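Next comes the chain:
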Amino acid sequence: MIPGTSDGLRRVAAVVSAIKGVAVLAIVLVLVFLSAIAQSVLLITKSSLSDRLPHLFYRAFARLLGIRIDVTGDAAGSRPLLLVSNHTSWIDIIVINALMPTSFIAKREVGEWPVIGLGARLMRTFFVERTRRTAAHGEAREIARRMVGRLPLVLFAEGTSNDGNRVLPFRSALLGAAQMAASAEPKTGAWVQPMSVAYTGFNGIPMGRAQRPQVAWYGDMNLVPHLWGVVTGRPIDVSVNFGKPVSVTAETDRKVLAAELEQSVRDMLQGALHGRKGEETGGKQRGKPPVGAVQTA
C-alpha cells in the first residue's frame, strides 16, 4: 500500500460527509421554512390538510437522513387512540411521523430544540411539565381532549430517553388521559396501543449494543453535535413494531395498564434487536404499514 493512502482516503471521506451534511441541513431548513408558512395558513383556516403536512415533512426528513424504516404490525384504526412507545432519540419523532400522521406528547424542552422544536410545534405537540407532579391531572385532561380528535397521540411513557438497548419503567400518570377519553366517549371507549422503535443497523449492517448509542440521544448529550453526527453518518435502519391494542374504560387501573404496556414494549424491542420480529406481538406476523403510512427506503 502506498504510504499515506489510507489517511488521504479518510480525509476525502470526511470532506464528502461534511458536504453531504451541509447540503442536507440546508434542504431541511428550506423545508422547515416553507412548511411553517404553509402549516400556519392551514391551521388558521382549520384545514384538514394540517394533519397531513407534518407527515409529509417528516417523510422527506427521513429520506434526507437516510432513515430506512421496517414496520411490523398495524396501528389500530379505532379512535380515540393513544400510542405508547419507548424513547431512544429525537430521531423517534421523525420515524413515527414518517409512517403516519400523529400528534405527540413531549416534554416542554422539545419545543426549544433547533429544527425539531419548530416541527413539533407545527404538528400541535402537547408539551408537558415532566418535573411537576401536581400538573399531571390537568395535563391528562388536556391530552384526553386531544385524543378525541382525528389523530392518534403518541406518548413516550418512560418520561425520558435512554441508550436504545432497554426500556425504562413506564410512568402511569399521563395514562389517566385514556381513562378520561373513555369517559368522554362512553359508546366507543378509548384505545391504548404499545409500540416499539428499535435501531437495528447502519446501511444493512447489524448494529451492536456498543454502536446503538451513536443514534441514541439521552442524558446530557448536546443536541447539535449529535444532529451533525446523524446527518453526516451512515443510513440508519429502524424497526417499528405495533402491539395489540388495549381497550380502556373509566374503571381501568392505569398502574396495571402501564405495567402491561411496559412489558409488551420491552418484549417487542428485544425481539427486534435480536432479529425476532413478530414473535413478541402475540404471534402477529409482519404486516403492511398502517393505513396512510409509508415505508421509507
Q: What stands out?
A: Residues 21 and 232 are 5 Å apart (CA to CA). Strands lie at 67-72, 81-85, 103-107, 126-128, 153-156, 190-202, 205-206, 236-242, 246-248. The chain has one domain: 5-273.
